[in-house]
Amino acid sequence: MGTAAAGKSKSLVATAFSAPSAEAGDSVEVSPLGKALTGVAAKVFEKLDGKARGMLEDAVKTGSLTADDVVKGLRGIAKEAVQARYLSEAPRTQEEMEYGEKMRSISERKLKFSAEQTDIRNSFSKQMEQVEAENYEDGFSISKKVGLAKEMSSKLEDHKKNFIETYGSLDEKVMKDGEEIDGNFMARRLSNNLKHSDIFSGEEDSAVFSKADSQAVEKLFNAGFRPAAYRNAAKAFADETDLDGIPDLERPKAEPRQKQVSTETPPPGYSEGKAQMDAAWQTAVGMMMQGKNAAENDPMVALLKANANATFGRQGYPALQPLPATSQTAMGGAAATTDNNAVLGALTQSLKEGAISGTSTARGVRNDTQV
Residue 187's pLDDT is what? Predict the structure, then answer.
């Protein structure tokens, strides 16, 4: 009985790239990819649907990917999924929640200021368009537009002065022991916990944040293997992963930040749009640190509202990538669900660098692979 059962049982990994034999008990020829798939990569692979497996099979057969690329890429996808789950479920400390509330208050003040300044600019922009439409003589038209520009500048300055008097400084920072508190304050603790965990200790590359695995995920992405093909499988793997062994360590000190100097001249409106998105991002981070997930406090809603009013240059604000979708969120240990909580995915990506920063959205660069 045991022999017959053994003859009929077939591993999903073994059969995925091999045509079924004529007899159920016949031996199965395993493809090079099937032989290469082990450990975490094999587990994720077995959770993929047939179409996704076929995509990988074709990529290996045509030579656009090697079996090693697929193994490392699937392992990288598994690691990103675990990172996302841990980020969503790790309890916030009382200190993080308190600082999150302060950050949120300051950031909402900046958002309000930016939105009101944008309204003023838009109002004068419409007036200038009207001047152009009325077909004034060139000299009179230019003179009138210069006058409007001076009036707008004066009105913006008056608005800023009155706003600060009413609501407080626009440069206020949340500080702790001489260190500015930002989104990295929480991410630094969580990333340090993950770095010292042994979740992937049995793998050839056991680092939770692996450059080689991340590069392999990029290869899969560029070969056409996108999140829609693997998101459910990756989440299923992460949901089965035991996170209880992740240590809760002290938050490491922040490393000095190097100032980036750009030689490019930003286009009109870029600075204002950037300021709005910076404020929106810090608001979202504050919500994350507080662990708030009610609809009226959804970080994604804050970002969408800011996007609605922001003025962009280039191809949007380069320091803000299109944010991926994640699923369940259990803030502070409380069970709750927030669909499409994109901030989690972006913060998960930030853990790899230990800082909250965007990723280039240039063509060919993966910016939506977190699950």
Answer: 83
